[in-house]
Amino acid sequence: MARLVFAVLCLLTVVAWMVPDLEQLGARDDLAVVATATVASPDDAALPRLGGHEVLVPSDPRGHFVMSMMLNSTPTRMLADTGATVVALRESDARRVGIFVGRNDYRQPINTANGQAFGAPVRIASMRIDAIELNDVEAIVMPDESLQTNLLGMSFLSRLERFEISGGQLVLAD
């Protein structure tokens, strides 16, 4: 738990320092989806293949990977951040996607560049970017004044088959 708090603290500090005007950048709608499927042997052909999709997210002019994802079937802007242990949502966006937290739920202390804040641990039922979808994703909800933009953290990224940066693009593969 202490590592989670420290990781979120570091993440929020970096985001606050590096991305002061992220809202002005907007989400990238020029994502490419590539479906891939390979059969290793005739025996494998009878097995259903789950996943096998790649999503390519181009970097913005600052080199960040901002994208529109579907959270609980609602479009939501996210900034990919491998330094974030979990997905982090602004309180207003959490409400918009059907995640409601009460004042007593903000029990996870987090230090940010703007001082100490408290986050509310939650689970996101469904997160999808194009053909890639994950269910029951660990996340934390932060007050809007403590988080400038939603963060796509490792609780989503680490569940993919792979993710990498290649040729100025973030490659997500399931």
UniProtKB/TrEMBL annotation:
User: Where does the record place a coiled coil?
Assistant: none
What UniProt keywords are attached to this protein's entry?
A: Hydrolase, Protease
Cite the GO molecular-function annotations of the record: aspartic-type endopeptidase activity
SUPFAM superfamilies named among the record's database cross-references: Acid proteases (SSF50630)
Highest taxon in the source lineage: Bacteria
Q: Which Pfam families is this protein grouped with?
A: gag-asp_proteas
Signal peptide limits: none
- InterPro entries linked to this entry: Aspartic_peptidase_AS, Clan_AA_Asp_peptidase_C, Peptidase_aspartic_dom_sf, Retropepsin-like_bacterial
GO-annotated biological processes: proteolysis
Q: Which NCBIfam families match?
A: clan_AA_DTGA
* UniProt protein name: Clan AA aspartic protease
**What species is given as this protein's source?**
Hartmannibacter diazotrophicus
